[in-house]
Design a protein that fits this description.
Number of strands: 7
Shape: globular
Number of domains: 1
Distance between the termini: 44 Å
Structural class: alpha+beta
Radius of gyration: 16 Å
CATH topology: Aminopeptidase
Helix content: 25-40%
CATH superfamily: Gcn5-related N-acetyltransferase (GNAT)
Largest sheet: 7 strands, mixed
Length: 176
Amino acid sequence: MPSADIRPAALADIPAIAEIYDHAVRFGTATFELTPPDVAEMTRRFNDLTGKGFPYLVATIDGQVAGYAYAGPYRPRPAYRFTIENSVYLAPSSHRRGIGTLLLTELIALSVARGYRQMIAVIGDSANAASIALHAKAGFEMIGTHPNVGFKFGRWLDTVMMQRALGDGAATVPHS
């Protein structure tokens, strides 16, 4: 199996990113979106995050996008400015190949370098064992579960909250 290359995402990657996310929306419970956004909307979201300096990565195998990961604001109020939320999505053919681990590891490193102190994972569906295991392997701790907060595919879904300190975490005062 070829190894994945991890690099910053580019505008040219958006169609492949949109295709991966489309599949996750239509067939999975990792996201609670019900209608897949089109390439224009995914481009808008990409530009918004990268324009604000948040890391956005792709994993490629033989030049093809196999997955992507990004960090964004956890909440909009200023007191949350050192806390980010992460997202990791893989093409269906890329599951269980270690690509999620590579993406999340690099995302964490870039987030530490940017001065963020906490990373939150909001995992859709408490039955999403793969995502929970990925985050636990990366040092995230289970914070709790919000039961029955989403309704998709005719059933109620939980969200699982996991958290990981970045850099000094809460041990020191961050530089504003």
